[in-house]
Amino acid sequence: MKGTIIDYLREYADVNLKDEPMNDVDSLVLCQFAYLKFDGLVPAVTENARPVSLQQLYEHPDYEKLYGDERYEKNNRALFEAMLKCERFRNMKLNCYINIIENQADFETQFSAVTFLLEDGTMYVAYRGTDENIVGWKEDFNMAFLSPVPGQEFAVKYLNMVTKQLPRDFYIGGHSKGGNLAVYAAMNCFPQAQQRILKIYSMDGPGFRPEVLERCDFGRIEERTCKILPHSSLVGMLFEKDIRYQVVESRTFGLAQHNPFTWLVQDGQFVTVSDIYETRRFMDNTLNEWILSLDERSLRTFVDTLFQILSASESDNLIDFTANLKRSLTGVLGAVKGLDEDTQKALIQTVKSLFEIAGMRMKQELKTLPLWRETKSSSEEPSP
Q1: What pLDDT is stored for residue 266 in this prediction?
Q2: Which three-class secondary structure state does DSSP give residue 9?
Q3: Quick check: 231 and 273 in contact, CB under 8 A?
Q4: Which of 119, 178, 297, 302 could bridge 127 with an S-S bond, Cβ 3.0-4.6 Å?
Q5: Would the CA dihedral through 165, 167, 168, 172 be positive or negative?
Q6: Which residues contact 302 (CB under 8 A, 6 or more apart)?
Q7: pLDDT tens digits along 287-302
Q8: Rounded CA gap, 250 and 230, in Å?
């Protein structure tokens, strides 16, 4: 029977990592666990203190602070409780936590990571990702388009510090933004740390421009890199050709598939599908080709304008943005009037992608808007 990562932990509660080593589903469990708020509960990376166990976290007076993100509180509680009862993770320890928030002129950065010490003698370095909030998704776009960004540089420094303190072989991964950070850190860490990497996981994380992969010599870690994404992925499909990927079935649709709790598991493995939707592939390839033709200044303008438009829609996240089609699109098309034609087309194409993966019949709605008719007549864009 198909279930979620929580069902997986319950089903394999009596199976330890020594009998069945770390797998892809275990990796997603730890990437999601990294979203909990460990501030004040797990030793900081600079403290060089004793690690804490799950039981110690559970008994800590500030235990409730772990669930500061109220939207996923129920699922995160169930995840923690299932891990505490599961032989694979119940004796795991946590150390080297970091959480940095910086506001700079060009980027607003939130960086967080934690290291899990596993009972089989290995460790898992997990980078926290973003959620569906528009600010978080902008950081995902920046990472794909404008590398390096501050978060990526933090990720390399963190990995070098942790691997120096803890001389274990290790896995490294993250969900969303965290997946991009994991791959970037693995490419750029000290050689002695890179040699100890067992596997690198990017769970629906944005990719990299080709010149970044070349500059960072991605080939050194390519065989150890695993990218996993749902079949309606948006962020994970940015430059998706850079890394071989597998596609997981989800119990939901559209942008909500970004949520790891919706990914399906059966018999201890992800339920996979052959590939992403063909229409998504065509639209993503078109967007990626256009992006690669731009210089950095133009890319910054594109990303900033796109997210100004999304913010102007009065939605604070992309799920709400796609839920009110006419209101959102009216704001989008009104905002792009003063832009050059190529940028107009690219912005509209990107917004089309948001609605296409939300499963909406956008073409019929768009035909009612004058600016869309003008733009479509001057270009040969595919129907979603």
Answers
A1: 96
A2: helix
A3: yes
A4: 178
A5: positive
A6: 145, 291, 294, 343, 346, 347
A7: 666 666 667 677 677 6
A8: 6
